[in-house]
Amino acid sequence: MVESNISKKTKVLKNKKEKSFSFGKFVIYAVLIVWAITTIFPFIWVIINSFKPSAELLSSSFSLPKEFTLANYENAFNNLNILKAYGMSFLISGSVTIGVIVLASMMAFALTRYNFKGKGVLDALLVASLMFPVFSTIIPVYQMMIKWGLLNTVPSVVFPQIASNLSFATIVMMGFMRAIPLDMEEAAYIEGAGVFTVFSRIIVPISKPSISTVAIFSFLWSYNDLFVQTTMISKRTKYPVCALLNEISSKYGTDYGLMAASVTIILVPVFIVYILLQKNIIKGLTAGAIKG
């Protein structure tokens, strides 16, 4: 009798736990669904409106288009030279990504594998630099670009963006590299390998998750960095795609169909990067956080 009562009580407790757990999951999923809808809806709304004439968009922006038109996209490609702006954006963002990966990986390797005077100060400066926004340094950087004769060129955007992303990238890679065991490196040194060989043949391949995370964020941040782009480049023929969108919103403020089409075109690379590489983003960040 006692055993049967105990088993009944345990079953009741299990049922209560299952019910409470299922209710908790329901609440979590409900919140996530609502959040997803509120996040995704604006993008879908912009895409739908990009296929409407401007007159119809103003009269009924929250309904499906009565007739689909590609006139807004034709206008964007023919009159705004979107493809050239895309080329400038990919050139700038690609250069920034490569520069950040190379410099941050070498800095992280040096700071995690070597002891030298001032190492603690450098670590502190890396963390402290994250607290300074780009707005606080843009005036001296702008003056430097003028003195060097780099204004309205690709390097005038690439150099500041590399500098602004370097601290974050180095900290992420340091968190990952600290957890890499020293056994393989020591064995390579015993076999006669040099520092560059150890770095390129051992450290870099093992650190691919953190490198991919840094590459993704550096590319997206550079691609969306309107402030530095519009500050350093004033010639319309050299505008990246985000700077071109800013001009559309001011110059063609009443042509909402053109604006919707331009926003859709600009968002395409961001969507592709997130959809294809979202696993790498999560994997790299969690690996660095756990191992750091």
Please describe what this structure looks like:
With 292 residues, the protein is mainly alpha-helical. The chain folds into two domains: 2-49; 80-291, Orthogonal Bundle (MetI-like fold), CATH 1.10.3720.10. It is built from 13 helices and no strands. It has helices spanning 2-49, 54-59, 71-79, 82-113, 119-129, 138-148, 154-177, 183-190, 195-206, 208-223, 226-232, 241-251, 256-291. It is globular, with a radius of gyration of 26 Å.
> Mean pLDDT, nearest integer?
81
Portion in beta strands: under 5%
Number of domains: 2
DSSP strand count: 0
The span between the termini is: 54 Å
Radius of gyration: 26 Å
Q: Quick one: biggest sheet?
A: none
CATH topology of the largest domain: MetI-like fold
CATH superfamily of the largest domain: MetI-like
Q: Under the CATH scheme, which architecture of the largest domain would be assigned?
A: Orthogonal Bundle
The 3D shape can be described as globular
List the helices and strands and how they pair.
Layout: H1 2-49, H2 54-59, H3 71-79, H4 82-113, H5 119-129, H6 138-148, H7 154-177, H8 183-190, H9 195-206, H10 208-223, H11 226-232, H12 241-251, H13 256-291
